[in-house]
Design brief:
Helix content is 16%, strand content 46%. It has 357 residues and is of the alpha+beta class. The strands form two sheets. The protein has a 14-stranded antiparallel barrel.
Length: 357
């Protein structure tokens, strides 16, 4: 057992070092859409890009494969996001359980950037062109015990921008602890280990590597679940260099140094995302979230608005679940998320039952 734990700690240390190296290689990471198009309405409403809630929701499986369970078998989930202007993205997931091999969820992520007018260096029109990214994911999970589950995502990636194309592969590895009695679940995840094997030009590029941790807890006497997410554990400094620059007082001409305590607190807060879900009825839930880092990066000093906040709801109509979310990403607009989930077994069973009658 001790030997096994040493191997685990060594692997984590190596991955931590890899993450630090990747974080320093500015402009060398590709396929950032992987962290954007894996977000369903439930996740978006609660402010993050993954959740650790262990309740058989297939819409969470793409972002956190260790949540995949046997109950997701034959479930299908469709997520669509109405983004800025003509851009649109989302994902489709389907679950299947195989007793000998574990539980699987196959997902297709996509983002369509729209149509562009091409021109040459002289300004002459060369026609229209398109840009899009795609990723095919196969998620797998298997319970190790009553409280622990291990999961992984294997992803094949393709990207097309006008005449440029790129292909790559990556993997996510996650482990979740779940205690039904305490209504508590927690996930540790290593995301986007991989690289391109055909770059847009010469060479190869790394995927947007990240280490994450999440916690979800439902209160004992109230149908409310809170979520705490910690992102970018492989990189402490998430501030821009301009934010730490020495400023000059316009009246005295003195240098104003950044407050080290303020810088520390700001950096720490940028790693955290908080959210909550209130289950008003078994068929209706309200959700809200706050992403401090998003607010700091996207706000305007003159008009901060509700940037960084998100909200949403979910309701069930017979055998179909509908979820909606709106996330205030910028003053220019707020994306709308729509998610639809159902169990195909229930639909086909009901259809066959009606046909027999």
């Amino acid at each position: 057992m001790l030997h096994f734990m040493r191997k685990i700690f060594l692997a984590v240390a190596i991955l931590w070092g890899m993450g630090s190296a990747f974080a320093q290689a500015g402009g060398k990471q590709v396929y950032s859409f992987l962290n954007q198009t894996n977000i369903g309405a439930r996740t978006a409403a609660m402010g993050g890009d993954f959740l650790s809630i262990y309740d058989d929701d297939i819409s969470l499986a793409l972002a956190n494969p260790s949540l995949i369970t046997e109950r997701m078998s034959n479930h299908i989930n469709v997520n669509v996001v109405d983004y800025f202007r003509s851009m649109a993205y989302g994902f489709v997931s389907y679950g299947r359980s195989l007793k000998k091999y574990g539980n699987f969820v196959a997902s297709l992520q996509y983002i369509n950037y729209g149509t562009f007018d091409g021109t040459d260096v002289t300004g002459e029109e060369t026609g229209k062109f398109y840009a899009n990214d795609l990723a095919l994911n196969l998620g797998w999970a298997k319970p190790l015990s009553e409280h622990f589950a291990l999961g992984a995502n294997v992803k094949m990636i393709s990207s097309f921008y006008e005449r440029y194309s790129s292909y790559g592969a990556g993997v996510d590895v996650a482990a979740t602890y779940h205690n039904a009695e305490k209504r508590l679940s927690s996930t540790f995840m290593i995301k986007n280990l991989g690289r391109s094997f055909k770059a847009y030009e010469n060479g190869t590029d790394w995927l947007p590597f990240e280490i994450q941790w999440g916690l979800a807890k439902r209160l004992e006497h109230l149908p409310f679940t809170y979520s705490i997410l910690v992102n970018h554990l492989q990189q402490w400094n998430l501030r821009y260099s301009a934010e730490d620059a020495v400023r000059i007082d316009p009246l005295t001409g003195d240098s104003i140094m950044p407050n080290p305590v303020g810088v520390f607190v700001d950096n720490l807060a940028r790693h955290f995302v908080v959210g909550g879900e209130l289950q008003i009825h078994k068929n209706f839930a309200l959700r809200v979230g706050y992403n401090y880092r998003r607010r700091q990066e996207m706000k305007l000093q003159s008009h901060r608005s509700l940037i960084g906040f998100s909200w949403g709801f979910e309701f069930r109509v017979k055998k179909i679940r509908f979820a909606y979310a709106r996330s205030s990403d910028h003053l220019a607009g707020a994306p709308n998320y729509l998610s639809i989930t159902t169990n195909l077994s229930d639909i086909f069973y009901r259809a066959s039952k009606v046909k027999k009658k």
